[in-house]
Amino acid sequence: MTHDLTPKYTVPGIEREAAGRLIGVLRLRLHALNDLHLTLKHVHWNVVGPHFIAVHEMIDPQVDQVRDMADDVAERIAALGGVAQGTPGALVAERKWDDYSIGRADAIAHLGALDVVYTGVVEGMRAAVEEAGKIDPATEDLLIGQLRDLEQFQWFVRAHLESAGGALATGSATSETEAAARGAEVA
């Protein structure tokens, strides 16, 4: 979908065209964060096995924080003069990734898949930080704080997948299903 995201007004000190570029960057981050919090809740509901309670309880605080991140991004879009598209239709139409593909599964399998999901979200956030840094330090700062939290969440996930020697069970997996299968082998 192509939209003219140039707002009619924006915050002082940012040109309208630059604000439009920021809105475009933030819009994809909003979709990624909304998708992530729904994916995390899906995992919370569908995790099974001996590590169930540890993963079940680890996920809910991440859900809450990711929802707060989405809210902050949506409010920044609005402050810049844009429209925060938070509907499922907009998310599905504009996202650049596939839907989470793991259903009811062992905790370690889900964590393997989540590691791949977090990698995609973190890489997208890093690119957004870089782009925002060219235009607006306030937006860049918001995204840097979120990036730090997302990296910590991925670390929590990876702690369940890491051997004492520092090797990740899902190491070179490039898809959720491949990572889930490798994680399931460890469990």
Automatic annotation (TrEMBL):
Residues 167-187 are annotated as: Disordered. One of its GO terms (molecular function) is DNA binding. Transmembrane segments: none annotated. It comes from Streptomyces coelicolor (strain ATCC BAA-471 / A3(2) / M145). Belongs to the Dps family. It comes from the Bacteria. GO terms for cellular component: DnaA-Dps complex. This is DNA-binding protein. It holds the Pfam family Ferritin. PROSITE patterns: DPS_1 (PS00818). One of its GO terms (biological process) is negative regulation of DNA-templated DNA replication initiation. The gene is dpsA. Keywords: DNA-binding. InterPro entries: DPS_DNA-bd, DPS_DNA-bd_CS, Ferritin-like, Ferritin-like_SF, Ferritin_DPS_dom. Residues 29-162 form the Ferritin/DPS domain. Gene3D superfamilies: 1.20.1260.10.
